Amino acid sequence: MGDGESGIKIIPNYLFSIPNSPFSITHSQLPITHYQLPILND
């Protein structure tokens, strides 16, 4: 599980704001939005 957390933390937040980015799909389907996705809170 630690590996998944590390992968998320090294991903720049600006990548999440890219609609065509695979990261935008990842954070939409994984229950990680509550601890490492400040953009969603904004």
UniProtKB/TrEMBL annotation:
Keywords: Hydrolase. One of its GO terms (molecular function) is hydrolase activity. The keyword Hydrolase applies. The keyword Hydrolase applies. This is Alpha/beta hydrolase. The lineage of its organism: Bacteria, Bacillati, Cyanobacteriota, Cyanophyceae, Nostocales.
